[in-house]
Write a structure and sequence with these properties.
This protein is an alpha+beta fold. It has helices at residues 2-20, 60-80, 131-140, 156-181, and strands at 31-42, 46-57, 88-100, 111-125, 145-152, 185-199, 201-203, 223-236. The chain has a five-stranded antiparallel beta sheet with strand order 3-4-2-5-7. The longest helix is centred in the last third of the chain and has 26 residues, at 156-181. The relative contact order is 0.22.
Length: 247
């Protein structure tokens, strides 16, 4: 029992010593913080098309069978133009009843008059000069909706790095101007953070079957890769003439 009491006493003394230790203090280094944006435009060389086939029939089975025949014809037409199976995938498939409600005809509730099947095919296009021909081929074989057309670029990564370099250079130039205006020198970088955005071009269009009588013209335009950089640099308190030269 005696040793137990000594252990308790030592525990209280140790806790008291820890409680009396001063908490660490954080010293804020004088610094300059700026943000800047870098933008690079690139010409798209890739595209994603969402080709839809919608079918209606008195029964769900009949609508599904009709839809399958149309979609197979669409896929075969795309394959004949060089689109491989790996470039096509199903992005949406739905079956739902088509209902009408006509109180003047004695309807008390909605009644089912048929079924609708929708099947949307995602198509990755690696040669954007083919887009017009691909759309025309799909529409001629039974597609009745082009739900979306999205342009992208295989050079987006290199464009992003170029935009990062531009943003950092602009942020540093602004920080240098602030430091000199405040009578000091810009020191070494403390921190750099980034937020970037890639803005693909979307074209939304819904087309009825047989609507494309002439070759469909497609103009991709340009993509914009945008990067925002926030940086912090040390602020040295010395005369401007004593500041080291910067690249």
């Amino acid at each position: 029992m005696r040793f137990y009491g000594i252990s308790i006493l030592m525990l209280f003394i140790s806790s008291a010593i820890v409680a009396q230790e001063p908490s660490p203090t954080f010293v804020t280094v004088p610094h300059v913080a700026t943000s800047a944006v870098g933008e690079v435009r690139v010409v798209p060389d890739r595209a994603t098309i969402f080709v839809g086939v919608e079918s209606r029939a008195p029964t769900a089975a009949a609508a599904s069978a009709s839809n399958a025949r149309q979609l197979r014809a669409v896929m075969e037409a795309l394959r004949s133009l060089g689109i491989t199976p790996a470039q096509m995938s199903t992005s949406e498939y739905s079956v739902y009843p088509e209902q009408v409600f006509e109180p003047d005809k004695g309807d008390r509730t909605a009644r089912i008059v048929g079924y609708v099947v929708r099947n949307t095919l995602r198509v990755e296009v690696r040669q954007i000069e083919q887009i017009g021909a691909l759309l025309d081929a799909a529409l001629s074989k039974g597609a009745n909706a082009i739900n979306s057309l999205q342009f992208t670029s295989s050079n987006a990564d290199s464009a992003r790095r170029e935009a990062l370099s531009l943003a950092v250079s602009r942020a540093e130039a602004d920080a240098l101007a602030i430091a000199r205006a405040g009578g000091g020198c810009l020191g070494e970088v403390i921190e750099l953070t980034t937020q970037d955005g890639y803005r693909p071009i979307f074209m939304e269009k819904s087309l009825a079957r047989g609507a494309a009588q002439d070759a469909t013209p497609i103009t991709p335009g340009e993509l914009t890769v945008t990067v925002q950089v926030t940086g912090r640099w040390k602020l040295d308190r010395r005369p401007a003439q004593a500041c080291p030269s910067r690249r």
